[in-house]
Amino acid sequence: ARIFGAAEGLRAAIRMPADQTERLLRRRWLALVREALGPEAFEVAHVEGGAMTKDEGVAYALSVT
Q: Could you tell me the residue range of the domain that residue 29 belongs to?
């Protein structure tokens, strides 16, 4: 959820909308993550990710993979 939030924040910052295929795939993955975490934990993590800088988002993604 944090990585999705970070990616969405970066896209918004550079004004780069997702294409239709990416939106469909992201919607499916977000649903799976939300189901696994529960709605409250998902929202917290997603907001935290959205507040990350580009460098923080990259560092976080590399640390959890």
A: 2-64
Question: pLDDT (tens digit, 9 = 90+) per residue, 5-21?
Answer: 999 999 999 999 889 99
b/e map 11-49, b = 16+ CB within 10 Å: eeeeeeeeeeeeeeeeeeeeeebbeeeeeeebeebbeeb
Q: Can you list the pairs that 30-34 forms with residues at least 24 positions away whose Cβ atoms lie under 8 Å? A: 30/1, 30/4, 33/1, 33/4, 34/1
pTM: 0.83
Domain count, the chain: 1
